[in-house]
Amino acid sequence: MKYALIGCGRISPNHIVAALNNHLEIAALCDIVTDNMKDKVLKHKLSSDVAQYTDYHKMLEEVKPELVAIATESGKHAQIALDCIDAGCNLIIEKPIALSLKDADEIIARARDKGVKVCACHQNRFNKSVLKIREAIEMQRFGRLYYGTAHIRWARDYEYYARAKWRGTWEQDGGALMNQCIHDIDLLRWMMGDEVDEVIGFTDRLKHDYIEAEDLGLALIRFKNGSYGIVEGTTNVYPRNLEETLYIFGEKGTVKAGGEAVNIIEEWRFSDYLDDPEEVKKECHENPPNIYGFGHSKLYADVIQAIEQNRAPYVDAQAGRRALELVLAIYEAAYTGKTVKFPMTDCSTMDFVSRFGGKAEE
Length: 362
Hints:
It is a single chain. The chain is an alpha/beta fold. It folds into 2 domains: 2-124 and 295-315, NAD(P)-binding Rossmann-like Domain (Rossmann fold, 3-Layer(aba) Sandwich), CATH 3.40.50.720; 126-289 and 322-352, 2-Layer Sandwich (Dihydrodipicolinate Reductase, domain 2). Helix content is 34%, strand content 23%. The protein is built from 12 helices and 14 strands. Strands 13-12-11-7-10-9-8-14 form an 8-stranded mixed β-sheet. The longest helix is centred in the C-terminal third of the chain and has 20 residues, at 317-336. The radius of gyration is 20 Å and the shape is globular. 48% of the residues are buried. The model has no long low-confidence stretch (mean pLDDT 96).
């Protein structure tokens, strides 16, 4: 299957390794910075036949890839995705799928019309720990779900933002919730039944006065099934990343997935005693080299199979929209000081440019 990657920055090595692990034909790389492409070719010992483009339109026209991964600045995801869909390409879109619900809906609609598959790259859904929890959810081992919590306690310093000026901007990124926390927010919504009733939230910029968006986000979520959710996300932890955890509390079960990026099971308690908690902890313990984990290769394998079997990917564009919607709802609640009811139909990060004293461009 002919594959191309658009965007060769921080996350691109995970995509290249996933493509190689799944025996895709890496036909082209695209980035506006040529050194980024050259570096990835050398680092991953790619063939000299891999074409390098600074213009993705030209790449689509000349290479005609079957599968494209988009790993650019978040604010460029939507337009590139729409152009790729129009060219007949199946897609893997790095999180977030877009920065507005309007764009996410257009991606979903156009992909349906063109008959192509679109996957939102929420690779943590493929963590062993997460798959184990999802299995328990689907088996209804928790009984009635009471509430779940997502805690993302990470650190990002000035150098992180200085290396890429788009980070922390409303036009191209958003803040801690949209960039760093959206993976765990996705997992929380997915595990708690997906359907949200209402959200209240707070955001603040406590430390990073050189970015436009938040470095702290707190939210309470009421789901339609009567359960609740709590989100705590920050990039202010001293001096380095601490943890990313997911708790699920139910009538007959209590689970905690933790580690730096929800990679291990720390608590596994069920009234049915179907399995040995210590064995589950051993089975689901992963120690990835970074917060991105091992999920990309599994996500790629699923997308390839989805294309071949003409089915939806395990993490489809609708899943990407739901994660985006929940982050935007927290932004809206914090901005207005009001409860946000679901569903949301039209919201964008650009609605919040004045949140911490900035102003919209004329």
